[in-house]
Amino acid sequence: MNRKKRLIIVSNNLATGGIQKALVNFLKEIADKYDVTLFIYSYSGKYIFELPAEINIIKANAFLKLLAVSQAEAKKEGRFLCLLRALLVVWTRMFTNRLPLSLLLFTEKRLKGYDAAISYVQSPDSRSFYGGCNEFVLKKIDAVKKIAYIHCDYLQYGGNTPRNKKLYSQFDHIIAVSEGCRKQFLQAIPSLSSTTYSVKNSVDFIDVQKKTDCSPVPYDRGKFTIITVARLSEEKGIIRTIDVIEELLEKGYEICWHLIGDGRQRKYIEERIFSKSLEGQILLHGEQENPYRYMKNADLFLLPSYHEAAPMVIEEAKCIGLPILTTNTISAIEMVEQCRAGWVCQNSTAGIKEGLEYILRNREELQHIREGLKKQRFSQESIFAQLDAVINGEHANER
């Protein structure tokens, strides 16, 4: 009987977020196919309860954990660690994070005997006290192959630095979570084209479909129901879309926009909605354990972001059979338009308005998209096959 390959994945935490959710889905998919170990900086967050029982978990020591917690959370670790984190943050902002990362990595023991080591979180800019997953894989793990994931628009996220270029050049393979992400990364570091691949994020389609049918939310069929599931932060484009909804309502369209999610901009969004007297037309539901029950009976999924990499919620909406309108971000064309899952509009307030108004005037196209999505088959088999090929050195080098 062949030995299962030993795989170690390094991440910072399991709190709410797209990367964390993708990681949990990824672990579920590979847990029975490899001997899997998760090295986690901070063993915290809602997704710890969804980790597959088959995997091994190694928790970072208290020093390395500082890279994955806030200053408020560090207070719970004791006065010394709280003070240490504060000092390292100040140093990082004044100089760079290079020395703090080196000091913290030094405190952790070396891990040996793995066939592949994967850094699941990209490196931040040099003035951020965060991350360190790439450095840990490169400096503290002995593995036959070392792989780094890219979950971002590399040219926009702030970490496109000479130091990070040097770090990524030391990996055997780079996995970008969409072709758009891969192209952006290679614009920054073209020398890595032969070792950089695109492999989609893992989505637990069975779980999504199961939760979709769990007490689905009914809506007023006299109104066109739009839903957005997103973190309430500036880059998600919520504020500009409030203005669009107001204009469409003034034109006489009967619409209602439901927002699922929370974030630092929530209070500002609530104030903006109140100032325009749109409390009955734009509804905030906050963070939801099961957002899919809100999606099932909606008419349209709207993603009005300024920047996105490869949002999993698009794949989730597709598997539910919900047509999508998204602004033109780096993966929008391949994830939505090329899959005939909806529409891609210009990334502007005017573009969002034009896209929504077109759909409102052409409901038959919306129904055609919905019927097409329901005929599609959604599976993770091809995603696992791609990943397995990278780990085993069998990935076709076609670009």
TrEMBL record:
A molecular-function term among this protein's GO annotations? glycosyltransferase activity
* Classification via Gene3D superfamilies: Glycogen Phosphorylase B
Which positions fall inside the Glycosyl transferase family domain? 221-375
Q: Which CDD domains match?
A: GT4_GT28_WabH-like (cd03811)
Coiled-coil ranges from the UniProt annotation: none
Q: Which PANTHER family match?
A: GLYCOSYLTRANSFERASE
Protein name (database record) = Glycosyl transferase family 1 domain-containing protein
The organism encoding this protein is: Lysinibacillus odysseyi 34hs-1 = NBRC 100172
